[in-house]
């Protein structure tokens, strides 16, 4: 399944990322999604961005050790000092091309200045990649 989207982050699940039952830990998935969403928030906000909430999480699929995780993000809303980012986690099986959604959720970030105070979002120009 080819995708026109570019992932914000791509990583392989390792044995240390498992829960006591041997599956990939949902907390690890959430942390990878937060890293990806934070990357987009910092890029779009042109500076420091910290997560203030994480909501609407669902884990419709399971990942195995060795699967490749790609996290795709998009901006869902812009506030005066905040960005809300939707993240979708897609796993690709290690030895093939089969893909499935394993998690999705929403992160809200507040943009901070050099004194760690909320600041207005810069009106960024679109940068082509």
UniProtKB/TrEMBL annotation:
<dbReference type="InterPro" id="IPR006683">
    <property type="entry name" value="Thioestr_dom"/>
</dbReference>
<dbReference type="GO" id="GO:0006637">
    <property type="term" value="P:acyl-CoA metabolic process"/>
</dbReference>
<comment type="similarity">
    <text>Belongs to the acyl coenzyme A hydrolase family.</text>
</comment>
<protein>
    <submittedName>
        <fullName>Cytosolic long-chain acyl-CoA thioester hydrolase family protein</fullName>
    </submittedName>
</protein>
<dbReference type="GO" id="GO:0005829">
    <property type="term" value="C:cytosol"/>
</dbReference>
<dbReference type="GO" id="GO:0052816">
    <property type="term" value="F:long-chain fatty acyl-CoA hydrolase activity"/>
</dbReference>
<dbReference type="InterPro" id="IPR033120">
    <property type="entry name" value="HOTDOG_ACOT"/>
</dbReference>
<feature type="domain" description="HotDog ACOT-type">
    <location>
        <begin position="3"/>
        <end position="115"/>
    </location>
</feature>
<keyword id="KW-0378">Hydrolase</keyword>
<dbReference type="Pfam" id="PF03061">
    <property type="entry name" value="4HBT"/>
</dbReference>
<dbReference type="GO" id="GO:0009062">
    <property type="term" value="P:fatty acid catabolic process"/>
</dbReference>
<dbReference type="InterPro" id="IPR040170">
    <property type="entry name" value="Cytosol_ACT"/>
</dbReference>
<dbReference type="InterPro" id="IPR029069">
    <property type="entry name" value="HotDog_dom_sf"/>
</dbReference>
